[in-house]
Structure formats: C-alpha cells, structure tokens
Amino acid sequence: VIDVALTRADLRRADVAVVIDVLRATSTATQALASGYHRVLCAQTIHRARQLSGPGRVLAGEQRCVKPPGFDQGNSPAEAINRRGVEFVLATTNGATTIVAARQRAARVMLACLLNFDAVVRVLQAAHHPEQEVQIVCSGTNGAAALEDVYLAGRLSARLRGERTDPALVAEAVARGFDSPLAALAASADAAVLREAGLTGDIAYCALESELDVVPAVIAAGAGVAAVAELDQLADKDLAGRTIDADDTVSV
Ligand code: MLT
After folding, report:
1. Which among 53, 164, 177, 242 would be 20 to 30 A from 89, CA to CA?
2. Which residues contact 247 (CB under 8 A, 6 or more apart)?
3. Three-class SS state of 204
4. For all residues of the chain together, what is the average pLDDT?
5. Distance 80 CA to ligand 1 centre (A)
6. What distance in angstroms lies between residue 161's CA and the mean position of ligand 1's atoms?
7. Taking the model in full, what pTM does it have?
C-alpha cells in the first residue's frame, strides 16, 4: 500500500517512510552526503544541534529560514556543496524534526527530494514489496501542507506499484497540475518566504531533478536526533531487510 502523509500529523506506522522537505531540509541533507559528509545528524531542536557540535562537525540549520546564531551555515543545499568537516549536524523547523519523528514510526526511513528523485524511485522499486506499507511523508510547514512536498510525493507515488490511499491519489493529482518541478516550487508559499529572505537561488537549486545519485537513510537514532547516511554505503544494501535495534544509538 502506498500512502502519503500530507502533513506530519498524518504520520503513522509503516514499513518504510520516505520523508520529504523539498524546501529545503531533505535537499540539503542529500547534498551534504553527496558532498562527502559521512553522516547527517538531524536534530530535533537548535539546542540539540548545539549539544552535538564538536570537532569535525559542521553545524547547519535555520530559524525562520536564516542561520541560527553560532551556526556554521544555513539550511542551504548550495552552501552544503563545499564540505567543511566530517559530519553535518542539521537543525530545521520542519524537515529535520519530521525525520526524527518518522524514525519513531517506521523501521526504515529514507529521505527524498527532487535532487535524488530517480535514485529514490530505483531503491523503492527494487526494495518495496506490494504487501509492505510505504508512507511518503510530507514535512509541510508549521503543521500545514506544503505544495512542493505534496508535488514530489505525487511524483513518487505515481512511479510505485501497489494500492494507493486517497491522500496518495490527491498528491498524484497535484503533481499532474504542474509542467515542471520549478513551476510547482515557485508557486509555493515556502518559496515566497525564501524569496523574501533573499534565498531565491535555493528554489532553483532544489528544483533540479535527479542530479544526485544518493539516497539518504536513517541508520541510527538517539534522543532528539536521527543519524542519516548514504544507503549505498551501508553494509546491508537491501532497504527492505534492514532494521534498526532500539539500542542502535547515535554516539555523540
Ligand atoms: C524546514 O525544515 O523548516 C525547512 O527546510 C525550512 C527552510 O527552508 O529552511
């Protein structure tokens, strides 16, 4: 069964959760791994991210779209192109928190954005068995649905086999309404906020499709943090076969 959580409130138990925050958390996390960071530590709060800071770790994130005080960089995929350390600590209002929450509901959690669209589709098509529950989770914005997330959820849903829930059909209908990823992103309220903040370049960057052959997956979790690494680098490459033990915590 293919389901879509149109907002984080719709998160439910599933075999596989695919978390989306196109503007911009999952785009930034995917870019960070593509740039060579070993792990992305998604923190539930700015405070938790600060606790995780240490040698070799780059602190990235946003509060109302801009870099929090004392952080090394913002929540920008373009800024994540140049690797500045070994691990990337990411704290964002909606995306990073949804990744941490999804880890509590699904044994396997992957991250999707437009940048890694084909790679995610390939992994899901290979690893997903029709009897499994796949939930595509839109991070949304402050509890409301975000157009860019629903657009991508619909694009992904349309490429998978299996029964679809009504929210999945809604997302697919939304996706059919746009001629290009950039058209969908540019029409969103989140894009308007980014334009207002002078971050227009990130909208175009996040709209680039299938530029990165990286599928981030949660490999461990601890209090208020989920550690994400590139799926191909995991010992167990079969997403469907990987589970995470409760004591598989993030060492800090
Ligand atoms: C979030 O997680 O709230 C977003 O990624 C915000 C942003 O675009 O920085």
Report:
1. 242
2. none
3. helix
4. 92
5. 14
6. 30
7. 0.93
